[in-house]
Amino acid sequence: MIPLMKSLGLGLCHRRQSVFKVRINKQMCTLVQYQSSYIQKIRLIQSLKDNNNVPNEILQKARFALFFNFKPLVAEKQGGGYCIPWKRFNDISKLLRGLQLVLLTTDSCTANNTVNTPDEVSFAINIPSDKTLENEELTVFATEMRKAMFIMSQRDTDALVQGYGLLKWHSVNSCCPNCGTKTNSDVVGSKRKCEACTQVNYPKMAPIVITLVTDEDRCLVIRQPTFPRGMFSALAGFCEIGETLEMSTRREVAEEVGLIVQHIQYHQSQHWPFPNSGLMLGCYATIKPDTAHKISLDENELEDAKWLSRDEVKYILQSNTRSEPGKPSIWFPPSSAIAHHLIKNWAFDSKADASS
Ligand SMILES: [Zn+2]
C-alpha cells in the first residue's frame, strides 16, 4: 500500500501544498482504499464459492435481502423513497432453515462503496408463500420485481435483480438437464450438482440485443403490441447460438423493420430479469443512406415504427410522462430501462451513434 500511495503522490502533505492538492490527495486515498477493499471482497466471495462453506463469523456479519414468493420486500426510507430492509443473520436464522441461499456480488462492484466492509457479504432468500412472515417483516411490504426496479436506487435494484434471477434459476433447476436426477445447490447458491451423473450446472442467462437504429439526425423507435399504451422503445431480440453481437443486431433489424444496418456500435449493458435472466446489450446502428423510407414491418412482432428527429425525442423525454390528454401520444421507457438511456444519450449527444 505505502509504495503505491507514494507513487500516486499520496505521501505526507507538505505545509506548502495548496488546499486543492490536499483535496486531490484525499480523493486518491479514498480511491486506493476502495480498490483495496474491492479486491478483498471479490476474493472473499470467490473463496466462499470455491470452498462451499460460509464460516460462522462471515454469516454473523452478513446481511440478507428477503423475497416473499419471489416479490422483494422493500421499505420506505425516512425522507422519501424506498430501500432494501436488509436483515441480519440473528433476525432471520429461524427463517433460513431449509431455504435456498444465494450470494450477491453486485454491491461489491459499486464505486464509493461505503455501505459494507470487505468481510461483509450480502445474500438473498425467497420465503415461500406457505410460510408466515413474522410481525417485524410486516412493517415492510412485498412488491412486484418490475415495480421495485422503478422505485429503488440503482444499487438496490442491482442487488434485487441478481437475487431474483438466481432464486428463480434454482427454483426451476432442481432436476439435472443431463439425466433428470435430483440436483443440489452449493452453500452460496452459485451452482447445482447432479446426485447421479455429478454434472455441475451454473446459472445461465440469455444475451439480448437492444438497438437504437439511426439515420443521420433521426432515430427509429418501435412499438410491440404488448407495450403499455403510447410507449415506443428501441428494437430488441434474443441472440441466437453461433451469432456475434453484430450478426444478431443486423438480423433483428432486418427481420423486424426490413432495413440494412452498416455501422454497429456497442454502448452499454443491463441485466434484465424477465421472464428469465437476460443480459441486454445496448447498441447503436446506422442504416444505409437514403433507405429509411423502406421500412417493412414484421406485423407478427411489431405494431408500429416511427422515425423521430432529435428535437422530437427531446420534447418527448422532457414531457416525462405517459400518454394523457394534452400530452404527447408517445412516451419512452423509464430510466430503469436501458432503452431510455440509449434514446436519451443519442438525443442529447450528437456524437452518440454508430457512425462517430
Ligand atoms: Zn445428472
Short description:
This protein is of the alpha+beta class and 356 residues long.
Q: Give the N-terminus to C-terminus distance in angstroms.
A: 41 Å
Note the beta-strand portion.
Answer: 15-25%
What is the CATH superfamily label of the largest domain?
Nucleoside Triphosphate Pyrophosphohydrolase
Number of helices: 9
The distinct ligands, each listed once, are:
zinc ion
Order of helices and strands: HHHEEEEHEEEHHEEEEEEHEEEHH
Largest sheet: 7 strands, mixed
The total strand number stands at 16
Q: Structural class, from secondary structure content?
A: alpha+beta
Calculate the mean pLDDT score and round it.
85
Q: What is the quaternary state of this protein?
A: single chain
Write the CATH fold name of the largest domain.
Nucleoside Triphosphate Pyrophosphohydrolase
Please describe what this structure looks like.
With about 350 residues, the protein is α+β, with helices and mostly antiparallel strands. The chain has 3 domains: about 1-50; about 55-170, Nucleoside Triphosphate Pyrophosphohydrolase, CATH 3.90.79; about 205-350, Nucleoside Triphosphate Pyrophosphohydrolase, CATH 3.90.79.10. The protein is built from 9 helices and 16 strands. The chain has helices spanning about 1-5, 20-50, 55-60, 90-95, 145-150, 155-170, 245-255, 310-320, 340-350; strands at about 65-70, 70-75, 80-85, 85-90, 100-105, 120-125, 140, 185, 190-195, 200, 205-215, 220-225, 235-240, 260-270, 280-285, 305-310. The strands form 3 sheets. Strands 1, 2, 3, 4, 5, 6 and 7 form a 7-stranded mixed beta sheet that branches. It starts with a helix and ends in an 8-residue tail after the last helix.
